[in-house]
């Protein structure tokens, strides 16, 4: 997280007192734990909706959602600010649509998206982060429903940010719903690094376009490899850590799932600074302020996210 903040320019924003205050970010994932980095000055977990276990109190038995939330807006309390997220004063709306193994079903994801749309005014939700995608080659009727759902969230005024998926480097490897024409799709700018996955070590993993509908994707890239962020304290491994310093509260994960919340956090900064922007305005600003890093268009999209350029008037 420290490296990602430096690359994309979050420190530049924080030095100017832009922290994402007042912006709600909904996160469709494995849930969220009550990590100390989310509780500074009172809990910033504004709401929790569980389509899997139907529990009312926040929890994260998978760890992925807590890591994503930390990238978006952890305050870095347990690391003396070293592993601070991008928008440390935003608030979270956690929607659990994945189980402890990171698996889920389309109906639960659809229910989660619908709940976010119905509650966007109540919780001041401006951004919907979806670090979730269907497997490579999946093209079912349910996938079409998922694309329709994220398009509906966009049409409702939400800034929808989704992962390009980790099925690269072949062309046509963008995951659903990242293949939606309307939403903002995020790839990893640093997928040349070797990362560890459940299937072993890999690199060049970030999904590449075009989509099946010949849409050039991803839209933008951000750091996604070996990102340090919040660890779910609900996991047995976390409970065994005791007082082992940073390792008790933080962990490393990689993938476009990590690049996506970097962008969501940056957009929370932008919307806290310019709250009257529409989702279309936000997407155009990203397009106009991205930095060309010399990679193929179907790999880098418009280019690398730069928070400093994004926020400058």
SSE blueprint:
Elements lengths: L1 H7 L1 H6 L8 E6 L15 E6 L13 H10 L17 E6 L9 H13 L6 E6 L10 H15 L3 E5 L20 E5 L6 E3 L2 E3 L17 E3 L4 E4 L5 H5 L9 E4 L2 H18 L5 H11 L7 H4 L6 H5 L2
Parallel strand pairs: 1-3, 1-4, 2-3, 4-5, 5-6, 6-9
Antiparallel strand pairs: 7-8, 10-11
Helix pairs in contact: 3-7, 4-5
Counted beta strands: 11
Order of helices and strands: HHEEHEHEHEEEEEEHEHHHH
Strand line-up of the largest beta sheet: 2-3-1-4-5-6-9
Estimate the mean pLDDT confidence.
Answer: 93
Cα-to-Cα separation, first versus last residue: 26 Å
CATH class: Alpha Beta
Shape: globular
> Regions with pLDDT < 50 over 5+ consecutive residues?
none
Main sheet record: 7 strands, parallel
Describe this protein's structure.
- The protein has 313 residues and is an alpha/beta fold.
- The protein has a single domain, classed as Rossmann fold.
- The chain is 30% helix and 16% strand.
- It contains 10 helices and 11 strands.
- The protein has helices at residues 2-8, 10-15, 64-73, 106-118, 141-155, 236-240, 256-273, 279-289, 297-300, 307-311; strands at 24-29, 45-50, 91-96, 125-130, 159-163, 184-188, 195-197, 200-202, 220-222, 227-230, 250-253.
- A hairpin with a 2-residue loop joins strand 7 and strand 8 (200-202).
- Helix 3 (64-73) packs parallel to helix 7 (256-273) and helix 4 runs parallel beside helix 5.
- The mean pLDDT is 93.
């Amino acid at each position: 997280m420290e490296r990602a903040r430096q690359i994309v320019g979050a420190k530049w924003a924080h030095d100017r007192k832009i922290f994402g205050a007042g912006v709600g970010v909904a996160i469709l994932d494995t849930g969220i734990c009550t990590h100390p980095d989310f509780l500074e000055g009172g809990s910033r977990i504004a709401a929790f909706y569980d389509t899997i276990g139907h529990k009312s109190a926040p929890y994260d038995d998978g760890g992925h959602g807590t890591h994503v939330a930390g990238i978006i807006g952890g305050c870095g309390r347990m690391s003396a600010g070293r592993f601070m997220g991008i928008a440390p004063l935003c608030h979270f709306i956690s929607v659990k649509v994945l189980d402890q193994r990171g698996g889920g079903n389309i109906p639960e994801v659809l229910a989660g998206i619908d709940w976010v749309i119905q509650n966007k005014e109540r919780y001041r939700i401006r951004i919907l982060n979806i670090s979730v995608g269907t497997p490579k080659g999946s093209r079912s009727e349910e996938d079409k429903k998922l694309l329709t759902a994220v398009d509906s969230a966009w049409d409702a005024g939400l800034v929808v940010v989704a992962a390009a998926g980790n099925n690269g480097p072949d062309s046509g490897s963008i995951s659903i719903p990242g293949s939606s024409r309307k939403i903002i799709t995020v790839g990893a700018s640093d997928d040349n690094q070797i990362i560890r996955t459940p299937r072993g070590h890999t690199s060049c993993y970030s999904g590449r376009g075009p989509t099946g509908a010949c849409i050039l994707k991803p839209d933008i890239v951000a750091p996604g490899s070996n990102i340090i962020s919040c660890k779910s304290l609900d996991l047995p491994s976390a409970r065994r850590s005791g007082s082992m310093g940073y390792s008790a509260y933080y962990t490393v994960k990689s993938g476009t799932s990590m690049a996506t919340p970097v962008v969501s956090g940056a957009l929370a900064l932008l919307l806290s600074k310019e709250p009257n922007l529409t989702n279309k305005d936000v997407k155009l600003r990203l397009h106009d302020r991205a930095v060309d890093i010399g990679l193929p268009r179907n790999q880098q999209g418009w280019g690398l996210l730069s928070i400093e350029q994004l926020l400058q008037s």
